[in-house]
Write a structure and sequence with these properties.
Shape: globular
Strand content: 15-25%
Mean pLDDT: 87
Length: 204
């Protein structure tokens, strides 16, 4: 195994967002999409839920609860990331500090955008999601995400397994996006191009 690869992808506090169908317009509202820079989106995350009309923090929204400050793992419900295909959504989540999102299901484009930005999304059955929310209702949770062994570890030797696409798993473990993965094959691509020029020079 590559010595730079560590099996634990993330370890930290869990924030339970008990909502279905969290769409990208709630994750990062449209008024914050004017910038193509990847910076400065943390404060805009869940803006309409997180702040009151006067701009002060909404004390009833879970991200503002004192016990969840500094959370790195977000727990939610079904169809997380639905709506428009804005890449700003994973940027905002990541810049806030979330490394892992656990939910019953995810919108496909959102899932791929997150994976390409180095975030781990874990889909579990409704029964397992219910049990994780039950854990969170018992008090603040500190979980460890072992990506190599595909386990969520709760402490006291308790763990829950999860499935993940092998290609996405390897890219996350290696810290590579789609471009980085392709660049690993640069020697083979170069050899192919040289061979093609030799065998088919008329192609230029």
């Amino acid at each position: 195994m590559n010595p730079s690869i560590h099996p634990v992808f993330a370890s930290g506090l869990v924030c339970p967002l008990d909502k279905n169908n969290v769409d990208t317009d709630q994750i990062i509202p449209k008024q914050f999409l004017t910038s193509v820079s990847r910076d400065g989106f943390a404060e805009a995350l869940f803006y309409d839920w997180r702040y009151l009309a006067d701009g002060s923090p909404n004390p009833d929204f879970v991200l503002n609860f004192p016990q969840y400050q500094g959370a790195t793992i977000l727990l939610s419900r079904a169809n997380f990331g639905c709506g428009s295909s804005r890449e700003h959504a994973p940027w905002a989540l990541q810049q806030y500090g979330f490394q892992v999102i656990i939910a019953e299901s995810f919108a496909d484009i959102f899932y791929n955008n997150c994976a390409n930005n180095g975030m781990l999304l874990i889909a579990l059955s409704k029964g397992n999601i219910d049990s994780l929310f039950t854990r969170c209702n018992e008090g603040p949770q500190q979980w460890q995400i072992d990506l190599k062994n595909q386990e969520i570890r709760f402490g006291n030797n308790a763990a829950l397994g999860f499935e993940i696409d092998p290609d996405i798993k390897q890219r996350l473990l290696s810290g590579l996006d789609f471009i980085g993965s392709s660049e690993q094959f640069a020697p083979q691509i170069s050899d192919f191009e040289q061979s093609r020029k030799t065998s088919q020079p008329w192609l230029g």
